[in-house]
Design a protein that fits this description.
The chain contains eight helices and five strands. By secondary structure, it is of the alpha/beta class. The protein has a five-stranded parallel beta sheet. The chain has one domain: Rossmann fold.
């Protein structure tokens, strides 16, 4: 029986940080996901991609063509924007701006939600019952990806 790949959902800030910097943990995560390793599945949401394109369009419109060429190389599974009725059960868990992201992480059946937003990590950490762990990019690499690359099992 084949092992299920670890499903890693990337928040907008992780993808954007990894795209604009050649250094740092977010870039390393993007580089690893672009290797298309069978043990890892990278995820993000359509909502996140819309946010990224809006930010690039405002702050660096000349970078949009490069972004559009690079994005497919990440081989991310893109989860659709949640319907309004899907948001209701999660209302109050996080701020309204982050609610579609939270529901998308759940809908994508992610094992890990990777975000650089410390407030969001704290908000989700205060709630019980989410079927994923919320971690910073550095925590993902320190605790999980190095073990995967060494062939060790990673606790979910």
């Amino acid at each position: 029986m084949a092992k299920r790949s670890l499903r890693i959902f990337l928040d907008s800030n992780v993808i954007l940080s990894g795209l604009v910097s050649w250094r740092g943990t977010p870039r390393l995560i993007l580089d690893i996901l672009s290797l298309d390793l069978p043990a890892l599945t990278g995820l993000t949401g359509r909502y996140n991609l819309i946010e990224i394109e809006r930010n690039i369009g405002k702050k660096m419109p000349e970078a949009l063509p490069a972004y559009r060429r690079f994005l497919p190389k990440l081989k991310l599974e893109v989860i659709s924007v949640p319907a309004p009725e899907e948001l209701a059960p999660f209302r109050g868990a996080v701020g309204d701006k982050d609610l579609p992201v939270l529901v998308t992480v759940v809908n994508g059946q992610a094992d890990y939600f990777v975000t650089g937003d410390k407030n969001l990590i704290a908000q989700i950490g205060q709630k019980d019952g989410f079927p994923f762990k919320t971690v910073s990019p550095a925590d993902l690499l320190d605790k999980m990806l190095l073990g995967i690359l060494r062939g060790n099992s990673i606790p979910l």
